[in-house]
Amino acid sequence: MSALPKTLEKIIDSLSSLPGIGRKTAQRLGMYMMKMDDDFISEFASALVDMKDNIYSCSKCNNFCESDICNICSDPNRNMNMICVVENPSDIILFDNTGFNGSFHVLGGLLSPLDGISPEDLSIDSLISRLDGVEEVIIAIGTSVEAETTSLYLVNLLKSHNMKISRLSQGLPVGGQLEYIDQATLEKSFTERVAIN
Amino acid sequence: MSALPKTLEKIIDSLSSLPGIGRKTAQRLGMYMMKMDDDFISEFASALVDMKDNIYSCSKCNNFCESDICNICSDPNRNMNMICVVENPSDIILFDNTGFNGSFHVLGGLLSPLDGISPEDLSIDSLISRLDGVEEVIIAIGTSVEAETTSLYLVNLLKSHNMKISRLSQGLPVGGQLEYIDQATLEKSFTERVAIN
User: Fold this and answer.
1) What is the ipTM metric for this complex?
2) Confidence of residue A1 (pLDDT cuts 50, 70, 90)
3) pTM score, whole prediction
4) For residue B80, how many C-alpha atoms fall within 13 Å in the half-sphere facing its CB?
5) Domains contained in chain B, CATH given
6) Is residue B66 within 8 angstroms of chain A, CB to CB?
């Protein structure tokens, strides 16, 4: 028989299903939660229930939202003429934190013929329908084979529209020491070198 | 305005209050939870609510439990004549995982005159009331000043009873390399050396 009450075991099991949280960390977190005050836990629990009931996809950009249009698309202070195209809603926070003040568009995945993911499976049509008046589309997806394929596909589709298309720069990470950088990144940083005078 | 729906922000806030989980990890976990299936999340949420409603302290050993007596104290296969004294309920899992098949007693803290924690604040009386027929008490608390003080106090109290009192061994960690071990631990491992022939 387990040394712990069933409810606590259930919480530890749930926590250890999360990415990067092993059994031991889950035990530590579960035990810590036992000591937290009741209000905190009940608010957390009700937020979890609400999450599944109240969060939808933004009808414009596919970001998570609690109404038809997300916080970003409904913000009058944002520049809707710049669209940053990302793979997942979680990527939005990353670029939003950089200070980018335009809008986003979530593809919902990357093209992958091998996995049967074709353009129809991604929110590409809804991106195209948003292009009126747009000055720049920033393709802000990774550098995997799927990301490069998706990027190429998007560029081909977008280049007929009269606007700037850009992608994330590739090169040395900030604070990175040369001796620890892989060869492919080094070559990239060399070919994409930036003039400083 | 935040890029995220309020509910998701609430979940990320809650997660980042947990020990060892920063804002970025909390965001990653929150986003991951969004993708998990509804049943999982609702079970997790209800376990959190149940945790605060249904979990009490065992009236015998102070372990967490869902009834009057915990799973360990009510297990007929355990040797109730050995008591492992620990600081917190969370320590029980650690020693239970070592294969120890006796019972536990949770002190609920350590003596600390500076913080105003005196013997009356700990479950020491209830430990004394359990000593009838007990063959060994293992003091399984840490090696901090408070732990040493508590250990000394307990030994003084217990030595009048006719039974074995032991504490955890101190020395090299398993797999530890000598050059990385601190001086105090090295000295301890030397003075507490164990005969092998």
Assistant:
1) 0.72
2) low
3) 0.72
4) 14
5) 79-167 (3.40.1360.10)
6) yes
